[in-house]
Specification:
alpha+beta, six-stranded antiparallel beta sheet, 6 strands
Length: about 160
């Protein structure tokens, strides 16, 4: 009798389908968690940026004695070869001075409440660039330096404060 020796080469179709099913299952679990962790990282970065902006506002006001900054750009870097000035204080990086960082849009609103030409109060909001993808929470801070948040809609002075 002849012996039949069939060498096995490759995978059967069912084995390949099982491997594909396992990969799809792992992906279905991992991808949403990855996206959620990215949103949390963006929100954390937005809060840190707001804290930085609060600090540099105080630095700007005490350094230049002209009130608070008239814009985010005024807090940004100076031109090469020039000294920092009220127009470009070099207190924040060019990215934050541009108002868009880590999936959030920062809007600075200076206020001259007594009409003397100097900014004496301000508010800053941070909104997700793409709500539901770059972040869920909206943030607000003013001269009180209390950062507030709201989920799904812009935060205001009456929104929930972030615990320290």
């Amino acid at each position: 009798m002849k012996r039949m020796n069939h060498a096995r080469r490759g995978f059967s179709l069912i084995e390949l389908l099982i491997v594909v099913a396992i990969i799809l299952t792992i992906s279905a679990i991992a991808i949403p968690r990855l996206l959620r962790s990215r949103m949390v990282a963006n929100e954390t970065s937005a809060v840190a940026s707001l804290r930085t902006l609060c600090t540099v506002q105080i630095t700007y006001e005490s350094t230049y004695k002209v009130g608070f900054a008239p814009s985010l750009a005024a807090l940004g870097p100076q031109a090469p070869g020039t000294a920092p000035s009220p127009a470009n204080a070099s207190l924040i990086d060019v990215v934050l001075a541009g108002g868009l960082k880590s999936g959030y849009v920062f809007t600075y609103s200076p206020v001259d409440s007594n009409g003397d030409g100097q900014v004496d109060t301000w508010t800053i909001t941070a909104a997700p660039f793409t709500p539901g993808q770059t972040g869920d929470r909206y943030f607000f801070v003013d001269l009180s330096n209390v950062i507030r948040y709201n989920v799904g809609a812009p935060a205001t002075a009456s929104s929930t404060p972030i615990p320290n």
